[in-house]
Write a structure and sequence with these properties.
The structure is a single chain. This protein has about 325 residues and is α+β, with helices and mostly antiparallel strands. Helix content is about 30%, strand content about 25%. α4 links the parallel β4 and β5. The relative contact order is 0.19. Bound molecules: coenzyme A. Coenzyme A (COA) binds near residues 28, 32, 111 and 213.
């Protein structure tokens, strides 16, 4: 049984954080941020939690697509910002949405989490275990941002997105690529209780720490390879792809991948310019922007690749039918 996304919903907090704000707190300037990252602004929560943002994104989906979520049979929740270790974010959301009964699981795959969720949803449907899977991504990254570090604080924002995955007769989620290079785990981490990671000393601050240059270089190199691998695996040519939606970490990463694989960058969608790096949420958020501005249309083929902390990545292609 094939499947695809049959509804999408998003939520972004009202509070806008402009580039000029950072001039007041660290040694930076608006021009540098825009030029080196492509980010114009990002959002920050007031009191919203990770689950509350997800709930509001789900309500957005229900209202836009007239979908009933009460019979969802599985919730996969991707996030790195859970307020509680137990119960899971997915089980909190099941209760809050009044879903009668569903398998619930959280996944931590950093910025690749949404795509891992889509791959798992497709697998559950294809083997006949599920009929309606809700894939959720929600992140309150501003809570874990070090506002004394100019190389990271300018990047992150808060947002949530949900996608419903259901069986489809005409459309499908194609064969995925995924992988991990755990030896580079220290390149992006968020640690609270340990002083070492893979035997290396780390900052135990409960804030995001990264080697931005390393992540940048790795992302461009590996995602360029994986873009080509995905097409080969599915016997598709790049000219059949209507939109490429990579993780929105930095606009220059997206441009460099396009240049490496010779893909027209005007056929990419990003959310980084408007919302900054929202980790697992960037891909569905970019897709939603593309839907709202009329670019993404029924019958389009979308190539999605997430990458980030782990270091891990996951990508797939899907037919857009709504
Ligand atoms: N304002 C002004 N200058 C800054 C700055 C800021 N906010 N942040 C860094 N700089 C400085 C550096 O200190 C460095 O100065 P130096 O030459 O005097 O040492 C200079 O700018 C260049 O630094 P560099 O690290 O080469 O900048 P960059 O162009 O690579 O941009 C990142 C830095 C972090 C924006 C970029 O590497 C990035 O986006 N990486 C990926 C991060 C990521 O995706 N993380 C999440 C995981 S998905």
């Amino acid at each position: 049984m094939n499947s695809t996304i049959t509804g999408i919903g998003t939520y972004v907090p009202e509070k806008i954080v402009s580039n000029s704000y950072f001039e007041k707190i660290v040694d930076t300037n608006e021009e540098w941020i825009l030029k080196r990252t492509g980010i114009k602004e990002r959002r920050a929560v007031n009191n919203e939690t990770t689950v509350e943002m997800a709930r509001l994104a789900a309500l957005n989906l229900i209202n836009r697509y007239n979908k009933d979520l009460s019979d969802v049979d599985y919730i996969i929740f991707a996030s790195t910002t859970a307020e509680h270790k137990i119960p899971s974010l997915a089980s909190q959301l099941q209760y809050q949405l009044g879903i009668k009964n569903a398998g619930t699981i959280d996944i931590v795959a950093a910025c690749a989490g949404f795509i891992y969720g889509i791959i798992q949803a497709q697998s559950l449907i294809s083997i006949g275990f599920c009929k309606k899977v809700l894939v959720v991504a929600s992140e309150v990254l501003t809570r874990y941002t070090d506002y004394t570090d100019r190389t990271t604080c300018i990047l992150f924002g808060d947002a949530a997105s949900v996608a419903l995955v259901e069986p489809s007769l005409n459309c499908k989620i194609y064969k995925p690529v995924f992988g991990t290079e755990g030896e580079h785990g220290y390149a992006v981490y968020l640690s609270e209780f340990a002083d070492k990671l893979n035997s290396k000393s780390i900052k135990n601050t409960n804030k995001i720490v990264q080697d931005g240059k390393k992540v940048f270089k790795w992302a461009v190199e590996r995602m360029s390879e994986k873009f080509i691998d995905l097409l080969k695996l599915n016997d598709l040519h790049a000219n059949t792809i209507d939109f490429f939606i990579p993780h929105s970490a930095n606009l220059r990463i997206i441009e460099a991948i396009c240049s490496n694989v010779n893909f027209d960058k005007s056929k990419t969608l990003n959310s980084v310019t408007q919302y900054g790096n929202t980790s697992s949420v960037t891909i569905p958020l970019a897709l939603d922007l593309g839907i709202k501005n009329g670019m993404v249309k029924t019958g389009n083929k979308l190539l999605l690749i997430g990458f980030g902390g782990g270091l891990t990545y996951a990508g797939t292609i899907l037919d857009w039918e709504i």
